[in-house]
Amino acid sequence: MAKMTEHTIGIDISKTHLDAFRLEDQAARRFENAPRGFRALIRWLGQTPVARIVFEPTGPYHRAFETALSGKLPLVKVNPLQARRFAEACGTRAKTDAVDARILARMGAALKLEPDAPAAENLFSLKDLQVARTALVKERTRLRNRSHVQLNPILKRQIKARLTLVERQLAELNAEIARHIACDKALERKREILCSLPGLGPIAAALILTFLPEIGTLDRKQAGSLAGLVPHSRESGQWKGKSFISGGRKPLRDALYMPAVVAMRFNPDLKAKYHALRAAGKPAKVAIVTLMRKLIETANALVKADRNWVPKPA
């Protein structure tokens, strides 16, 4: 009996609609970016065996789509920059919603992209809270900087009042994030393991759990790569450039910086590593990035083993 063809679907998501393209029979269809449209999309797919549905994240516009269909259909979320580079490699210069849907389908089939693991509903709420918290932290920094140079007494009073409000809102968000994690026993256990590492506190642990939900299921290189902390070499012929880090999940990388600075002083293993790198002539920033990578790799290994960090015996 012949095996049924598994279809690859590309979907370009905009504010009001979804442009879908089925690669195998070249069928295209537009749906509303709303629950009614999601139901129509499922009906359009019918009994068709689907290998993957490829889409790009589009800020707030893909959230409802991903929430409604995650776990029901094999969704694959791809980096928009990589999708654009794939289109250019295919010689496609035009950029419309229909063209983007076709390119996404071709990319999914050519690279044989595997579906993502279904996202936990709790994770979406955590991400929303963390994004709002990051905005408040930036606002607090901006207000503090302005308060140092402001001389007008009315403006200084207003800045002080806004700072008080921002601090109160930050405290509310921190408490809500902690509550979300405490409601999930698996997440709570992971946070306990992360907080056992010298340098990682509850806030940094919550950021890691939000932006690296795969922690504990990755190998060593994957953990560093997802954080964008694996250096890339640049060589051509006899020329050798400096290695650099790039890509990965920036919020995760940002969350690891201050814990690495703290670990540099209070984590005996990482402290020894930092001084060894500096003694070898490495710049301070390079040494700190190395500690950031070691920190996330150690955290991933501990979560995988389901054990807390303990200091090495003398």
Automatic annotation (TrEMBL):
Q: Which UniProt keywords apply?
A: Coiled coil
- Organism encoding this protein: Paracoccus fontiphilus
Q: Say if the entry is tagged with keyword Coiled coil.
A: yes
Coiled-coil positions? 126-176
Q: Which residues form the Transposase IS110-like N-terminal domain?
A: 9-152
Give a yes or no for keyword Secreted in this entry: no
Q: Which Pfam families match?
A: DEDD_Tnp_IS110, Transposase_20
Q: Report the transmembrane regions from the record.
A: none
Cross-referenced PANTHER family: TRANSPOSASE, TRANSPOSASE FOR INSERTION SEQUENCE ELEMENT IS1111A
Task: Read off the InterPro entries from this record.
Answer: Transp_IS110-like_N (IPR002525), Transpos_IS110 (IPR047650), Transposase_20 (IPR003346)
Name of the featured protein: IS110 family transposase
Looking at the record, the residues that make up the Transposase IS116/IS110/IS902 C-terminal domain are 192-275
